[in-house]
Every structure is written in C-alpha cells, then in structure tokens.
Amino acid sequence: MKLDPSFIWTALVELLSAVPTTLNVTMVSILFGTLIGTIVALIRIYRVPVLNPIASAYVTVIRGTPMLTHLLLIYYGLPMLVNGLSDSFGWSFRAASIPMIGFAYLSFSITSGAYLSEVVRSGMLAVNRGQIEAAYAVGMTTPQALRRIVLPQAFAVSLPNLTNALIGALHGSTLVFSLTVVDINAKAQIVASTNWKFFDAYLAAAILYWGLTVLIEQLSGLLEKRINVYNRGGVA
Amino acid sequence: MIKLQNITKSFGRLQVLKGIDLVVEKGEVVAILGPSGSGKTTLLRCINYLEKPSDGEITIDDFTVNCKRPSKKDIHTLRGKTAMVFQQYNLFRHKTALENVMEGLVVVQKVEKEEARRRSIELLEKVGLGNKLNAYPSQLSGGQQQRVGIARALALNPEVILFDEPTSALDPELVGEVLAVIRNIAKEGITMIIVTHEMGFAHDVANHVVFMDEGIIVEEGKPNDIFVSPKEERTKQFLKRITPEGVYSI
C-alpha cells in the first residue's frame, strides 16, 4: 500500500464539512460544562447543605466512569425516562424526536462539568483570601465579590487547565460517531469507504484535529499574554 | 460615633476578645496598640464583620448590630459604613489603580461611571498617584499600592476607616510616604481606627490611644496619658520594650 497525497488532500477538503459539527459538540460541552463546573465548585467550596454531598458524588461518579459509557447510558436511558414521563403526564412528546446530537450535547456537558468543576475549584482556591475580604470591605455582597473579583482571577489562573479541557473535549467529541453523528472522524470513515484508503483519510483527520488544536493553543496563548499584564506570578 | 459593647470573640476554645467596650467619637483618630496576639487586629476586623464576633453589639451612627444573630442585611449595612486598609494592601489584582478606586463607587454605591472616574482620579492625585492611574498593582511598589488602598477606602466616603497595620508589610524606606498620606487625611476630620506598631506615628497623629493585651483593653486615653504617664504596669512594660530610650521625652 502506498500513501496517496492527492487523496489526503481530497479527504481533507471533504472533512471540512464536518468541522462545524465537531466544533458545535466541543463548544456546547465546554460552555455548559463550565457552567455546571462553576456551580458544582461553588457548592463544594461553600459546603452548601444537602447539595454538597450530591455535588461530590456527581464528581466522583462521572470521573470514575468513561465518557463513552456516559454517552451510551444517556442514549439508552434518556428515552426511557422521557417516554415514561410523557406517558404518565399524557404529553405527546417522544424521545424519538430528540436529535442524535442532542444526546451528545447533554452527555458531554455532564462529563466535562465534573472535570471542569475541579479546574474551577482549584482556580478559586488559588485566589488570595485577601481579595474577597477587600471586596467585602468595599461593601460588595458575596455574589458581587465572586462575579467581579474572585471568578475573573480564578479564570486567569485556570486558563492553562481550561485549555487542556477544551482540547480534551475536542478530541473526546469523536465519540459521537457511535450515535451516527457525522463529525470529522466519522466523515473520514465515510470518505474512505468509497476507495478503502482508510489510512490516508484518518491521516487527513489527524492533520485537521491537530490544526484545530494549534488554533486553540494560539488563542489561549494570546489570552494568557493579555492576562499576564497584571498577573506576573510564577517562577519565570 | 462608633460604640462597641462587650465584644467577645473565640476561635474554638481560644478566647481572643474578652469583652471589649470602646467609644470612638466622630472625627477621632484612634490608635490601637498592643503586643502581637493581643487581639487588636481581630477587634478591628470585627468592626466590619470580616471576623464574626461571638457576642456583643456594634453601633455606628444610629445603626446597631447585635452580634448574637446578625442578618445578612445588617452585615451589609455595617460594611457600607466602614472602609478598610489592609496590611497586605489587598488591591484587586486584575484591576488598575483607577479601577480599584472606582470599583466600590460603581458596583456598590451605584455612582455614575464618569462621576466615579472623576472622583477616583481626584483621590489618586491626592495620595500622589495621579501618574499611576492605569498601573496594575503588580506594577506598583508596596508604598504605592498602600496609597491606592487608602484612596479606595476614602472613595467610599465611610463613617470610619479601619487601618490594619497599614505599614507593617512595607520596606522601611516606604513607610514614610504612607504615614504622610494618613497624617494628611487625619487632618480632614475623618474618623479613623488604626492598629499600628508605629509608636511615634500613633503619638503624633492619634488623639485617642488604646492599649490592648490578652483580649482586653488595658488602658486608654490621650496620647500623652498613655505614652508619657501610663498607669498600668502592663502598659509601661510594653512601651519600655518597644520604644528606644529618650524617644518620648517630651
């Protein structure tokens, strides 16, 4: 078997049509994951009664099980739940009308939420206690102090870890092919199935993923540079 | 007027404040002195509820908080009447000097942005930092940071400014510039409570000196009462230990 550079190029161009799907799944899971993660982190840091043990259980269970398993459990479990609810309340809504990608959004958001809660939590713990005290001293409420003072600084501290999570989510999104959602990876398989040049097609996919990752790294680098205007900590 | 009645505070089994009564008149500059561990910083932090007193009553103006069961609103109101200058400055690290001073005005007091900016620039000029408006705390020296901290406190126009050892973290050569700023604002009749180890400064600037030890107020009075003719043995010992001979021969 010989490498076919022109086919790699053809495949690459064809794969571009699947980029939006991959980016959608990635961005949705990171956005909602960050939202879930922030809420979970706050619950755990403030040891909110009742919710705190639930949040801890969520983190250990989700981190303790594979992402693909979450996807399959949601895929098979959610319809049972939705249809069961529909039946008992007499709604006409059926699980069959949920688009496949919806399962991926939900499942991956839950997965990233657990990991991101630890990223956010460690970021918040890295913010000096004096910062929130100063916020209180100028008269802020706790939500104001968190929103205006603590979370922006926690975000800055967490940027390298958030970038990691984003890249992880980008690569993890390949699992959607098990739901017949056509992302970059699934598209590569489809492209190759016409001429059996699987290696070339997957190589094209690899190049594309790497390109997207470099893009994320560059953006994160720019952001970090901006943040470093004030945050000149560390060893260098 | 600020009135503290029977303030107590325990950390676990350790009682740090054992019933503090203190009255501070409007416009007074109070210096709180005492050895480390005497509870002076804890007392200061109780006044704006950064530390939760175990019991007692705090009155600022006509607003009283019962420390047994304060509501969130009580604490918020109390903090609205006070401002604090920290030992470690605690400037908001992700905000410029100007933004640090504006923050409380805009977010808490809902002052219009342009007005807040104008007032903040004025205050930063007053503390000698008119040329550092857009500098981040990490770009300022300790003395400059502390002066921003003072401007931030002044901006809130509080009933009282609480100073928690404002010069203890500074290099010796930077202490002077910060003390000079505090000296200046003391002349304007703003009520201030200062926890400090700067005896000379306390003597010059304060008009009410409080000496604390082991969670109680041992002695209080005019600066000369405390520095020149202290009555309590504990006060005499403390002053002898930390003041070089001859400094207070007035």
UniProtKB/TrEMBL annotation, chain A:
Query: What GO terms are given for molecular function?
Result: transmembrane transporter activity
Highest taxon above the source species: Bacteria
Keywords (alphabetical) are: Cell membrane, Membrane, Transmembrane, Transmembrane helix, Transport
Q: Where in the cell is it found?
A: Cell membrane
For this entry, list what GO says about its biological process: amino acid transport
Transmembrane annotation, as ranges? 28-46, 58-78, 98-116, 202-223
Q: Which InterPro entries match?
A: AA_ABC_transptr_permease_3TM, ArtM/GltK/GlnP/TcyL/YhdX-like, MetI-like, MetI-like_sf
GO CC annotation: ATP-binding cassette (ABC) transporter complex
Q: Which residues are in the ABC transmembrane type-1 domain?
A: 19-220
> Which PROSITE patterns does this UniProt record tie to the protein?
ABC_TM1
| Membrane topology of the entry | Multi-pass membrane protein
Instruction: State the SUPFAM superfamilies in the record.
Output: MetI-like (SSF161098)
Grouped into one coarse class, the protein's main location is membrane
Stated family: Belongs to the binding-protein-dependent transport system permease family.
What's the name of the protein? Amino acid ABC transporter permease
Native organism is: Cohnella terricola
From TrEMBL, chain B:
Cited InterPro entries = AAA+_ATPase, ABC_ATPase_HisP-typ, ABC_transporter-like_ATP-bd, ABC_transporter-like_CS, MetN_ABC_transporter-like, P-loop_NTPase
Locate the coiled-coil region(s) and give their ranges: none
Matching entries from Pfam families are given as: ABC_tran
Where found in the cell? Cell membrane
Give all residue intervals belonging to the ABC transporter domain: 2-239
Question: Chief localization class?
Answer: membrane
One GO MF annotation is: ATP binding
Gene3D superfamilies on file: P-loop containing nucleotide triphosphate hydrolases (3.40.50.300)
Would you say which domain of life the source belongs to? Bacteria
Keyword Nucleus assigned: no
Q: How does it sit in the membrane?
A: Peripheral membrane protein
Keyword Membrane in record: yes
Give a GO cellular-component term: plasma membrane
Descriptive protein name: Amino acid ABC transporter ATP-binding protein
Organism of derivation: Cohnella terricola
Read off the lineage from the record.
Bacteria, Bacillati, Bacillota, Bacilli, Bacillales
